[in-house]
Amino acid sequence: MKNYLLFVAIAMKSLSLCAQEQAPMVLQYDKPATYFEESLPIGNGKLGALIYGGTDDNMIYLNDITLWTGKPVDRNLDADAHKWILEIRKALFNEDYALADSLQLHVQGPNSQYYQPLGTLHIKDLALGAITNYCRTLNIDSAIVKDSYQRNGKLVTREYFASNPDKLIAIRLRGDINCQIALTAQVPHQVKSIPGQLTMTGHATGDPMESTHFCTMLSVKTDGEMTACDSSLTITKAKEAIVYIVNETSFNGFDKHPVKEGAPYLEEVANDIWHTQNLGYDEFYKRHLADYQAIYDRVKICLNKNGRNPNDLPDAKDRRLTDQLLLDYTNGNDQTPYLEELYFQFGRYLLISSSRTKNVPANLQGLWAPQLWSPWRGNYTVNINLEENYWPAFVANMAEMAEPLDGFIAGLAANGKYTAKNYYNIGEGWCSSHNSDIWAMTNPVGLSGVTGI
Prior knowledge:
- This protein is an alpha+beta fold.
- The protein contains nine helices and 16 strands.
- The chain has helices at residues 2-20, 83-93, 97-103, 265-275, 281-296, 322-331, 337-354, 385-395, 403-424; strands spanning 26-29, 40-43, 47-51, 57-64, 119-125, 131-139, 144-151, 154-163, 168-184, 189-194, 197-203, 213-222, 225-229, 232-249, 380-381, 435-436.
- The strands form two sheets. Strands 1, 2, 3, 4, 5, 6, 7, 8, 9, 10, 11, 12, 13 and 14 form a 14-stranded antiparallel beta sheet that branches.
- A hairpin with a 3-residue loop joins strand 2 (40-43) and strand 3 (47-51).
């Protein structure tokens, strides 16, 4: 027992020393993103954004993890499908595999619904001139994205974070600020503007009487001049502008109709936007940081301090940027442990940022989906991908990030008992197939029908 306690004490001391020696975890680039994979994500577990960091048109894709097409599943769907099981078995026993293959289409239901993007924010710099000294970073330790550049020698800096305790995205612009701010979306929507505020309402693709609705509100505070026109705001002669974004949807649970039984999203978003008047930007960030670091700071990583290349670290004069680190690692030129440390903590950052909504776990896109029709519908692929999202939840000391998954599985169980009966004539227990969505769909999916994969 004494030896065991000595081992634990030494191990804890080693972990403590390693924690103190973790390098700053920062992704850094010297140009704006062009593709989804190059953008920098922020998220509060429900509301998220992809920062592309353009200098002329800074596009920011917005997402809400509860915005999906469709409505609750029909539990009576294919109620007699199980009758085909005996015929399929008979064909297999007769080694008539072509017939069995054709018959199994009768025990396949429709595919899942789609996860959809919320909107796109454009911040257009109205100034003209050449750009120099561009920098774009994601500080994983403090959950904030920053970018900066000089235009005609004048510095512009921008910061972005997504707060869970205050249910908002915050953006701060500083420098010589003359810009236009506009909201648009790929889903059906409309935008109205008044001085200092944009309001966008809409719904997921589909029949508006059968779809999830949303309301996005954006407010701006500035020391400059501001005008509203159509669906945009224009800021001029400013040294600082602060943008707050909030959103709510009518999604009210996997078994609640999003219109007939929808959440009071208009009332909720009005409360959210009023709350942005209660505190200043710095106080919102302080609250966000405390909330995030309470989870993130539980684990530090230091694989090989002596093996680090000094030029990998954020403060290095000749720092290798993240895309160069990736290229050198892939080519075998320099497989730095710093990149492996970044990879580990970036994974924890993504789960903290995308999995904090009751009963709605991170999907195939996590939280971030710029396309109207995401690959594989952005759904829950239950045979492996959903599990992969949550592999780090417990071993990387952020167990509460798995709570949305627990609630989702309860929904699968509720719907899955009907699937077990309808498709397999099993009256006890429940089952789930390999595709699902926010409505906890459990039926098997295949090539049958126009909605098949």
